[in-house]
Design a protein that fits this description.
Number of domains of chain B: 1
Helix content of chain B: 40-55%
CATH class of chain B: Alpha Beta
Distance between the termini of chain B: 20 Å
CATH architecture of one domain in chain A: 2-Layer Sandwich
Strand content of chain A: 5-15%
Oligomer: heterodimer
Radius of gyration of chain A: 30 Å
CATH topology of chain B: Rossmann fold
CATH class of one domain in chain A: Alpha Beta
Strand order of the largest sheet of chain A: 2-1-5-4-3-6
CATH superfamily of chain B: Response regulator
Largest sheet of chain A: 6 strands, mixed
Number of helices of chain A: 19
Strand content of chain B: 15-25%
Distance between the termini of chain A: 43 Å
Shape of chain A: extended
Chain lengths: 432, 122
């Protein structure tokens, strides 16, 4: 049933919510109860003054009765239904449901949004708990201190006769350990304080650099023109809290500057606009390596493309060393990424560009065009195996690209049970 | 002279506390604090029982135990393993490596003493 024919259902629902009897409402607006009954069962159309009068008695805007639930609510309900095969047969009645039971519909939509948020938080926290070396080390340190204190305190409390020399020694140990425990727990609490805001908690120099880049929307026009003042610029960035993060930032921005010299912002942006992601043409025109072209596309996409383009870089061990995030393509913070990413295929086939369209597993099932290549780093030496970095552009696809290769983020939060690349069980299926 | 215990642990104050309670109970306690040469130290003077921490500098307690089990079975060398990591997989790794008993930190003095007595009497 179309949404605009459900005005009667909405009136009936709103009337019931307001606790007004059908006959009362009919009397208030000057119509018979039987006519209102026909309206409420969508068997008579309603509009104009009568609709305004009914809305006034019910204390709602007329548009709420005539237009029904917002399109966003309908869309969210459809999204929620996508996870439940049992309601697929009733999907065409979602409008009717939202119109007749707006309160329940809103509740389902709210819960669906909440489930999505909690899944993201669970994914991040599980990633941290499972793979965060800082947390594991801190917890180990705390437990070791607690053990030492418990054992020493036990000796002092339970040993009836203890030589003064031993007593003094254990009291000194107790004092030392309690101080170390206080420091360890303070550091741990400081670290965990960021847990509520998992997206903002910084744990590594690279993450601080990524936060700084995002803060500038990846736009460094002045630095692209000249690298004068680069170090002062880095010193002034509040996100870079350590020497290590400033050092990493220096390397990233110097590379950005080198890329900008080869591919100036204005001309490269214009070429992107005219040719799109025509890599061979861009490589030829700007005489730049493929990986550099990919980096430049990603950085300039925020200004010259319909939507930001993501980028992931890994070293030869597969460790992710740079991330420019893009919505819908989750990149793990600590744990190893999905081995099915084209990034890792590129690592296995150096210098061979790879293009693959992928669908990310999970609720949103977003699709992306991925372009990847691995290139050597450092100068080539005779009889020395070169080292490689792999680069992958992640381009969001609008619309449905059809059946494509499925990839995940990381095994712990991937629902694909029969994946041959699975390293460990998924908490989305088995729980934590 | 009582039976011998070798404690391999890298936290000095835990070494001191455990050594104290075992000595008071009549055990001859010796200690070692790194994983590098732990296997050689044990084989050089095999104790009646070995107390082994998991996280040691140089080599993990799991690796040390695996190597020791090539020459000394659980009967001839009882091993009590100490760890701050109580995860199931750590326990499974310890059992696979051939541990006699696995104890997670923080433990009490009485628990350590009881475990040592049990393992040597067993």
């Amino acid at each position: 049933m179309a949404r605009d024919t459900l005005t009667g259902s909405r009136i009936r629902e709103r009337r019931a919510m307001a606790g007004i009897r059908q006959s009362e409402l009919a009397r208030e607006v000057g119509i018979s109860a039987s006519y209102l009954n026909l309206i409420e069962h969508n068997r008579r159309r309603i509009g104009g003054k009568l609709l305004v009068d009914i809305a006034q008695v019910l204390g709602v805007e007329p548009s709420l009765l005539s237009e029904g639930a917002e399109a966003a609510l309908i869309a969210t309900l459809r999204e929620a239904a996508a996870d439940a095969p049992s309601v697929q047969s009733e999907l065409d009645r979602v409008d009717e449901f939202a119109g007749r039971f707006p309160g329940w519909a809103e509740l389902i939509a709210d819960n669906h949004r909440r489930v999505g948020t909690l899944e993201r938080v669970a994914a991040t926290l599980t990633d941290r708990l499972t793979h965060d070396p800082h947390l594991a080390t801190s917890m180990h340190e705390v437990l070791t201190m607690v053990t030492a204190i418990r054992s020493t305190a036990g000796i002092l409390a339970e040993t009836k006769e203890i030589e003064p020399e031993w007593r003094n020694r254990f009291q000194r140990n107790l004092n030392e350990d309690s101080q170390r425990l206080a420091e360890s727990t303070q550091q741990l609490v400081t670290y965990l304080d960021g847990a509520g805001d998992v997206g903002a908690s910084l744990t590594s120099p690279m993450e601080e650099v990524e936060m700084m880049l995002a803060e500038h929307n990846y736009r460094f026009t002045d630095l692209e023109e000249s690298d004068e003042g680069l170090e002062a610029f880095i010193e002034a960035q509040p996100q870079l809290t350590s020497h290590a993060s400033r050092d990493v930032a220096l390397g990233v921005l110097r590379q950005l500057r080198r890329d900008a010299v080869m591919m100036p912002r204005a001309s490269f942006g214009k070429a992107m606009g005219e040719w799109g992601l025509d890599f061979p043409r861009l490589v030829k025109e700007f005489r730049a390596p493929m990986a550099a072209v990919m980096r430049r596309i990603s950085i300039l996409s925020n200004d010259f493309w319909s939507s930001p383009i993501g980028m992931v870089v890994c070293d030869g061990s597969g460790t992710l060393i740079f991330r420019k995030p893009v919505e819908g393509f989750a990149v793990p913070r600590f744990s190893a990424a999905c081995p099915k990413w084209p990034l890792f295929q590129a690592l296995n086939r150096p210098l061979r560009p790879i293009h693959q369209t992928v669908t990310v597993t999970g609720r949103d099932a977003r699709q992306f065009d991925c372009y990847a290549i691995s290139e050597t780093i450092g100068p080539l030496e005779f009889n020395e195996d070169p080292l490689y970095h792999a680069f992958m552009l992640v381009v969001p696809i609008e619309g449905d690209a059809g059946a494509t290769r499925e990839v995940g983020s990381t095994c712990r939060v991937c629902p694909s049970l029969d994946c041959v690349g699975r390293r460990e069980p998924s908490i989305l299926v088995d729980g934590i | 002279m009582g039976k011998s215990v070798l404690l391999i642990e890298d936290e000095p104050n835990i070494i001191e506390a455990i050594s104290f309670i075992l000595s008071r109970d009549g055990w001859a306690v010796s200690t070692h604090s790194n994983g590098h040469d732990a296997v050689d130290v044990v084989r050089g003077a095999v104790p009646d029982i070995l107390i082994l921490d998991v996280m040691l500098p140089g080599k993990s307690g799991f690796d040390i135990l695996r190597e020791l089990r090539e020459t000394h079975g659980p009967e001839s060398l009882p091993v009590l393993m100490l760890t701050a990591r109580g995860q199931l997989k750590d326990r499974e790794m310890a059992e696979k490596a051939g541990v006699n008993r696995f104890m997670t930190k923080p433990f009490s003095n009485a628990e350590v003493l009881e475990a040592v007595r049990d393992l040597v009497d067993a």
